[in-house]
Amino acid sequence: MAKKPTLSDAHLILELYELRREAEMRKARNWWGAEFFPQSADDVMNVAFAMGAQENNWFRQVAGYWNMAASFVLLGALNEELFLQPSVSGEMFLIFAKVQPFLKELREKVGDPHFFLNIEKVITHTKWGRDRLQFMVKRVEIMRQKRAERKAS
Predict the structure, then answer these.
(1) Whole-model pTM above 0.90?
(2) What is the pLDDT of residues 78-129, one digit of tens each?
(3) C-alpha 99, offset from chain centre
(4) Are 93 and 69 in contact (CB under 8 A)?
């Protein structure tokens, strides 16, 4: 079991929360949560390599944020159990659930075996994280279907 959460862990969580409140980050998070529903690795690639496009900026901003936060956990700077609380990292599970089905192909196409790796390691390190990911994968699929239905009508 990891060390017990400390006051320093709580302060770092609050600092990470403050970063999420920045205006452009809110736009980027909204795009990831409400608009970006890739159906394939190519859908992800189209955004990941559209340098200069707003969606590319948002993609990199949110993915980079969660990869950075996950690295704090992996390197022992932040308590894992505290970080994995849904109120802290629920969004990380959402964004990973959107790319996870295509991850192997994405890593091959990007030529980077570390693409989303910190996030993957933190999520899959515990049974709770693996179970939560499966829950989010199902939720993303429901969201994707409802979005498609709205567009069709």
Answers:
(1) yes
(2) 999 999 999 999 999 999 999 999 999 999 999 999 999 999 999 999 999 9
(3) 9
(4) no
Please name the helix (run of DSSP H) or strand (run of DSSP E) that holds residue 153, with its range, or none: none
Which whole-number Å values give the CA distances from 91 to 35, 38, 88, in the listed order?
14, 16, 8
- What would the two tokens of residue 45 be? 């690639």
Residue with tokens 């996950």: 70
Q: What is the DSSP annotation of 18-87?
A: HHHTSHHHHHHHHIIIII---SSHHHHHHHHT-TTSHHHHHHHHHHHHHHHHHHHHHTTSS-HHHHTSHH
The residue type at 93: F
Share of the chain above pLDDT 70, in %: 99
10-27 per-position pLDDT tens digit: 999 999 999 999 999 999
Q: Two tokens at 108?
A: 């091959």
54 Cβ contact partners less than 8 Å away, ≥ 6 residues apart: none
Residue 93 contacts by C-beta under 8 Å, 6 or more apart in sequence?
Answer: 86, 123, 132, 133, 136
